[in-house]
Amino acid sequence: MKKEEKKILKDPYGDIDLEMFREFTEADGISGCEKEASRVMKKWMTGLVDEITYDNLGSIIGVKKGSGSGLKLMLAGHIDEIGFVIKEIDDNGFIRVNTIGGWWPHVLLAQPVTVTTSEGKKYHGVFGAAAPHGMPADARNKVMEIKDVFIDMGVSSKEELEEMGICLGDMITPRSNFEVMNNPNFLVAKAWDDRIGALIAVDVLKGLKGQKHDFDIYAVGTVQEEVGLRGAKTATYAIKPDVAIALDVTIASDYPGGENRIKCGVGVTVELFDASHLGHRGLIKYVEDICKEKKIDFQLEQLKGGGTDSGEINKSYDGIINITMSIPSRYCHSHHTIIHRKDYVDTVDVITELCKRLNKEELEKIRSYNR
């Protein structure tokens, strides 16, 4: 009798809409130019919320009304991504850039980009990279500075770019596709930071369809997070939430040479703190209790550098009860970032359950934890 072979590769975890994931991540939208991404979020929120509005910076706000208590829960995922704007164009048509958000130039050389004109036309370019043949050792071992990198658009002159409608200040984004990897639980794309947060907010709305909940649920795609958490501030003032959860990525360290402290595929990750905020201990415990009840693994992140939308949300008005829930990601702030389906699905499940449970009495229990 032939011995049954053990299956190593895993089946996909949970139920997600891969087309929605593709549309969110492949949309182009650096800080200050998020319209394409907000249109995608509007498309997928329509029919799930009672009203969709915008603040004056462009953050998109969808609200699903609760039982009438007037209490508000804000789920905020920023829809801007890191990228570049055109700084200058030389006579031969090569483009120099200014960064929007944080880049390590080491990850840029020979990578493709999309240049979007003010009229919405898109063109393909690539960061130049010298061949190593004959290159001196000091040049090979040096990480280039942004001022020294350039984009080759495959043209011969500045005039050709002008004829295409490309000019100073135009948006440049990483050019890469959303893909399911060999183990289908691993997903790779640009812009998980932070379209993943907006995706979570939309999927929570899906999970609440036909369900009773006391709080009004606000699903928000904030803008300009990568340049200073700006949309989080204006959106918070537009909503004035009682409770808020910022949804973002964090840095996974489960790869060769990493600390193996924050791992992909665990379940739920909550930030105890980052450089911009300290999580509300009462709300952290509330989420942890839901995880224990649902038998979902839980890890606490302590991020010494970097910040999230919580940095502006938590200190608005007289203080907002607020935490950040994160999806571990490998190779963040690059063309190709990897996440795990389980982290996403479990986070959606826990937040959906939290939305169903929250009421005035539960809010007072959470609030009293810090008093």
Polypeptide structure, described:
- Helix content is 27%, strand content 26%.
- With 371 residues, the chain is of the alpha+beta class.
- It has 2 domains: 18-81 and 190-368, 3-Layer(aba) Sandwich (Aminopeptidase); 83-174, Peptidase M42, domain 2 (Elongation Factor Tu (Ef-tu), domain 3, Beta Barrel), CATH 2.40.30.
- Strands 1, 2, 3, 12, 13, 14, 15, 16 and 17 form a 9-stranded mixed sheet that branches. The protein has a 6-stranded antiparallel sheet with strand order 5-4-9-6-7-8, with no helix packed on it.
- Strand 6 and strand 7 (122-127) form a beta hairpin.
- The longest helix is centred in the last third of the chain and has 17 residues, at 341-357.
In short, what is this structure?
This protein is α+β, with helices and mostly antiparallel strands and 371 residues long. It is built from ten helices and 18 strands. The strands form three sheets. Strands 1, 2, 3, 12, 13, 14, 15, 16 and 17 form a nine-stranded mixed beta sheet that branches.
Q: CATH H level of the largest domain: which superfamily?
A: Zn peptidases
> Which regions are unreliable across 5 or more consecutive residues at pLDDT < 50?
none
As for the CATH topology of the largest domain, it is Aminopeptidase
- Number of contiguous helices: 10
